[in-house]
Model the fold of this input.
Amino acid sequence: MSPPRVIGVSGNLQRPSRTRTLVEAVGAAVARCTRIDLHIYDLLDVSPGLGASVSRKNLPLPVAHLLEQIESADALIVGSPTYKGSYSGLFKHLFDLVEPRALANKPVVLVATGGGPRHALVVEHSLRPLFGFFTALTVPTAVYASESDFRDGALANEEVAKRVTEAANQLVRMLAPAAPDLATPVGAPGTRLPAAAFWSPIL
Done:
């Protein structure tokens, strides 16, 4: 039996990316509990063609590929940096092109990053309503991290790491109810992330 296919979508428009790091942390935490087929995509890689796409007709191949990956996934881990209190316009444009019924009942973990704590409710006020429209099954725990929660490009805040673990455990229960919970918060200081998350070039 094939493992569940989990697709991560990081709304970053630059590298290195804290949003990408957070998406990877959740994916790695899930992979510690249950076998998954994990692929993570950066919005940066499709941004030129995506910005010029006004409908699903004649989409550039990288954009069409990413949409197919999102719609056919067994679960999603989606994240966006915060701009003016919400997700980025290009992130929203990507999901404007998703077939609305394709995400119905699909498990989704929501993550976001921002410059400081005042943006923390972006996951509840912006991301969760967006996926509520799709009738996706967003896990109860969302993860937000600000700039100060990272050190040398890695997640360094223990409380955020705990939320990563909680969100991952909730997704695992949706994918494989018998899988055990994580014993240690993934991304906590002094721990190493497993190399389960990897960059997927869009062909």
User: Anything to note?
Assistant: Residues 189-203 have pLDDT under 50 and may be disordered. The beta strands are 5-10, 37-42, 75-81, 107-114, 137-138, 143-146, 150-151, 154-155. The CA atoms of residues 18 and 153 lie 7 Å apart.
